[in-house]
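Sequence in, structure out. Go.
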Amino acid sequence: MAVVFDKPHALIDVPLHYCPGCTHGIIHRLVAEVIDELGIEGKTIGIAPVGCSVMAYNYFNCDMIEAAHGRAPAVATGVKRADPENHIVFTYQGDGDLASIGMAETVHAAARNENITVIFINNAIYGMTGGQMAPTSLPGQVTQTSPYGRDPKHCGYPIKVCEMLSELEGPEYLERVTVNNVKNIRAAKKAIKKAFQNQIDGKGFSLVEVVSSCPTNWGMTPQAALKWIDEKMLPYYPLGVYKDRSAEKEAE
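Output:
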């Protein structure tokens, strides 16, 4: 009998703690599939900071390190530089972690073109801590700390990470994807695989931003949350490649 579905070896066979409809599980699987396909499980080290993915060490078969809130790029930099030939290092970070308390680490790791891979989960809200407004929350979005909707006059505008980092000289590769349907999931995996391959090839800093859902804190059903990605998030956070230095060189 042909095998049509198998769990990646890089993903431990245990139940995930994420809420029903949360897309973290899909993204975990994509990362694990890429690790399997590239044959790098034994040399991969993941960095999980504070956030919904704080217990990612329970799910990945590779070595994992816990970082303080926002500090994953700094920890990843140290790990990679300690043994650059034998370690493949990735961070797995949410928007509150990467784009708020960890913004400095993110920007400077990108500016230095550190040879690491960053998986950035953008669900426009603080998930683990109760649904507060995040740096990526949309204008008008209702959260626990913006009960009347985010007002840019008082809170500023959402931070578009890929667009911002694309203005730096350093980064090798920046792409925004989503996982709200099969077509987009396939595209997301392709981007994640490219980001890991860039590190293997020594090209430098790669970040894949995954626009994701948070049904619990958005106050929606899983189905409605996936629809909200299409209708509300993607118009503000357009999908696409925001920087690819290798492709730019080939085009010259």
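Check: The CA atoms of residues 176 and 209 lie 5 Å apart. The chain has a mean pLDDT of 95.
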